Amino acid sequence: MALLHGSSIGIDLGTANTLVCTKDKGIIIREPSVVAYDNKNDRIISIGSEARTLMGKTPANITVVRPLRDGVIADFELTLAMLKVFVKKAMRNSLFARPKVIVCITYGVTEVEHRAVENAAIDAGASGVALIEEPVAAAIGAGLPFRQPVGNMVVDIGGGTTEVAVVTAGGVAISNSLRIAGDELNEAISDYVRKKFNVIIGEVTAEDIKKQIGSAHPSTDLGMVEVRGRNLMTGLPAVFNIYSQEIREAIAEPVSQMVEIIRSTLENTPPELCADIYENGLTLTGGGAMLAGLGTLVNERTGVPVFVAKRPLDCVADGIIKVMSTPAFPGVLQEVRHR
Question: What is the pLDDT of residues 196-218, one digit of tens each?
Answer without folding.
Answer: 999 999 999 999 999 999 999 99
